[in-house]
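User: what does the whole thing look like in 3D?
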Amino acid sequence: MIVFADCQDIRKMTVIKEIDCPKCGAKDGIEVFERDNQTIGDSACDQCGFTIPEGVVLESYLDDLKK
Ligand SMILES: [Zn+2]
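Assistant: Here's the predicted 3D structure for the full assembly of 67 residues, as structure tokens:
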């Protein structure tokens, strides 16, 4: 569960993405909140609990996992 600050400006710029879990492969298993290309808050997989940390660039982070 992610709780936003009471700031409407932040909310407006926030993008929500559903991605497949890079660990267990759950389809749309992780809901990621993103702003300015960086993740907001920890995003955990519903299935396995794999967590994407706050403040990372999502695409780079996922690319690094594949290496
Ligand atoms: Zn998973």
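In plain terms: The chain has a mean pLDDT of 88. Residues 21, 23-24, 26, 29, 45, 47-48, 50 surround zinc ion (CB under 6 Å).
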